[in-house]
Amino acid sequence: MLKKDTVSAAQKPPNKGGYAWNSWPAWVKGSCFIIFFLLLILYFMLKSPEVNENKATWLWDASIIEERTDEIVRFLAEQKVNTVFLQTKESVSPEAYRHFNAEAQAHDISVHALNGHADWAYTEKRDEGTAWVEWVKRFNQEAAPEEQFAGAQFDVEPYQLRRWEQEEQAVIAEWSANIEEWIQAGSEGNLYMSAAVPFWLDKRESPDSKGTLSRWMINQFDAIAIMAYRDSGQQMYDLSKEELAEADELNKKVWIGAELGHTEEGEHLTFYRKAVTNMESEMETAAELGTKHQSFAGLAVHHYEVWYKKMKDDVSLVRKENK
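User: That's the sequence. What structure does it adopt?
Assistant: Structure tokens below.
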């Protein structure tokens, strides 16, 4: 005999959800599975890619590596820097460079030799640039693999000189011919070749008159660092997006530059007087926008000494020399 509060299985009402699903035709169930599967694919297709948080930075006063290598490398690792453009100078010993390069590489940070002068764009100065590339190659030949420079970056800015205003196209022609020779010399030493360039090269014609000067530069080098100096992440990206698109097509890499130092050209060009939280927020915006491009290599912060001061408030490191 059944208890009053006990209901036989036969008397239980059907589970509405299960009953409804079981009553659906097979073709309806199959359609549901297909729709679910397609929605899942669409989700992953539209899902935002992980933001590229890699950073590069310029280190102009190479003399500080002789005493502060551990401190510098630790800071760079904290800031997710994976590339350093380190100025080379005769007053810094090869031993200091080898030690710094090895310590950086142990933290997955590649070091690129850095040099350049505005007048290196002139034909008569071509040999100086070539001689420097040859110096980097000899340095690497004499160093252990972990002590070598991963590449060489040129910082040549002829538009700072008076001749640019009067003979822009002639200077571009000389500059371009110099670059071709430097690239050839660097490729013979398996150096990753890059250049720091202004954002407006996409508004200039290439030396062969077949496109923009920026596209020509990107095609020559393995990567470029765009000096897209603004205090807005959106504007930093806007100044770089043409070059990023060109680099996407050419399968090259582009760093978007951020300025942290003092400048007389306008507060809107730098994060010098901006709070760290504001700076990092805007840099994150630039990185998020840049990540839409496969060519985006990360942000390039100019420059290490002021960055360190801003983050650590250590005045003793702010001693960047005139280039």
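The longest helix spans residues 26-46.
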